[in-house]
Amino acid sequence: MTQMGPTTLSRRRLAAGLGGAVAGALAGCLGDEAPGSASIDTGNDEPADDEADGGDAIRNAADASATVGMIYALGGLDDRSFNDAANRGIQRARLDHDVAFANEEPTSIPEFETAQDALSSSTDPAYDLICCIGFLQADALSTVAGEHPDQRYAIVDSVVDRDNVASYVFREHEGSFQAGHLAGLVTDRDVSVGAGSTIPDERTVGYVGGVDSPLVRKFEAGYRAGVDHATADVSVLSTYLGAFDDPEGGYAAAAEMFEQGADVVYHAAGGSGLGVFQAAQEYGRYAIGVDSDQSRSNPRYADVILASMVKRVGTAVYDAVEETIDDDLATGSTTALGLAEDGVALVYGTTLGPVIPDDVRAAIVDSGERIVAGDLSVPTDPEAVN
Fold it and tell me: Residues of the chain with pLDDT > 70: what percent?
């Protein structure tokens, strides 16, 4: 497995507001570059909503049903993936329950503890809930939650063993199995739809991870197992970028895989995945997105996005807020969401989904039902896959 070095994050935004996703494109325009030399496009021709920079949440906190501090994962808002999914959850809580919230977007791991402590110490407003998005916040939260025992917290994507923390995790390997199952079925066929096509006789797929960690390796493990379930003798290429906000690195990694004959590349790399989509489009192959339906959040690349393995991150945020309002937050416990709970799912792309053959769809449904029933076991470690 190739290991790429980490990338230093280049932006920081501290936003407070009752509004929507934060603007800020990751990089320039597509242009006519040849494969291997492109700048990265965000995949959306429309400007991002700028409401979350408005600063109105704190002014309206006194009239709100609850005041929530949102601390996002590295890469920040407008990643069109993991963080944006969390933001949709707090936006829905605002609309349904008149919640006030503030957004904070650390750009390095040490800043997590700083942000958590600042919100925990705040008295104007005093936060009813501080919601920490991403597994890299766990160590800091364990410390901060111990120092602020009366503050309620939720963490999404990790477990923190504190009496005042509600933990939400996902069985990503289950949804990734279905992504791999789809990739394996596609690479085994002569496919030419949208802007992509498979290479006859290659039978190769790829996986691009963000930070190499046990959590992100769960995606790879499920993906490899799904590919193996679909068909024998398929090569799975894999690499880790060391960052979730490196679309140029995502492009380079996927381009190398496509050069080696990969028909489909699945990413679990946050904002870095934008580069995977651009490489797929330029090389005329296919990609599978993650966390959100990325054919919708990145419509420019919808003609190469077969599907996305969605995590209901927004649902976890929404549920934590709603339970806080009801004074029923399950602190000191862990909620696990998988296929059975609709916490993860394979969602077909808006453009390519309608042309995916019925027998492929039926096979994906069957594997999902077998996983839920316990008849099909999905590994969490890539080393456990043959």
Answer: 84
Instruction: Please give the pLDDT value at position 84.
Output: 92
Q: Which helix (H) or strand (E) holds 368?
A: helix 358-373
What average pLDDT does range 207-224 have in this prediction? 97
Residue 69: both structure tokens together:
């501090």
Q: Per the CATH hierarchy, to which homologous superfamily does domain 172-311+342-384 belong?
A: Response regulator (3.40.50.2300)
The single residue listed with the structure tokens 């965000």 is 42
What are the extents of the domains in the chain?
2-170+313-337, 172-311+342-384
As beta bridge partners, residue 286 has: 264
- Which of 12-21, 247-256, 273-282, 317-326 shows the lowest mean pLDDT across its residues? 12-21
Residue the block writes with tokens 């991002």: 48
> Is it the case that residue 38 has pLDDT exceeding 60?
no
Please provide residue 64's backbone torsions phi and psi, each rounded to the nearest 5 degrees: -85, 155
Taking only Cα atoms into account, the Rg of the chain, rounded to an integer number of angstroms, comes to 20
Q: Please report the sign of the dihedral spanned by the C-alpha atoms of residue 76, residue 78, residue 80, residue 84.
A: positive
Q: Which two tokens stand for residue 53?
A: 């920079």
Taking Cα atoms as reference points, which of 308, 232, 214 lies closest to residue 266?
308
Do 172-311+342-384 and 2-170+313-337 fall under one CATH topology?
yes
Q: Is 36 exposed, middle or buried (0-12, 13-18, 19+ CB in 10 A)?
A: middle
Which amino acid is located at 384 in the chain?
A
C-alpha pair distances (Å), 92 with each of 88, 117, 277, 338 = 6, 26, 28, 22
Strand pairing category for 286-291 and 235-240: unpaired
> pLDDT, tens digit, for every residue of 302-350?
999 999 999 999 999 999 999 999 999 999 999 999 999 999 999 999 9
pLDDT digits (tens, 9 = 90+) for 63-84: 899 999 999 999 899 988 899 9
Q: Say what the pLDDT of residue 255 is.
A: 98
- Give the homologous superfamily in CATH for domain 2-170+313-337: Response regulator (3.40.50.2300)
What is the Cα–Cα distance from 366 to 345, expressed in whole angstroms? 13
Rounded CA-CA distance 187/8 in Å is 35
The residue written with tokens 């909503």 in the block is 49
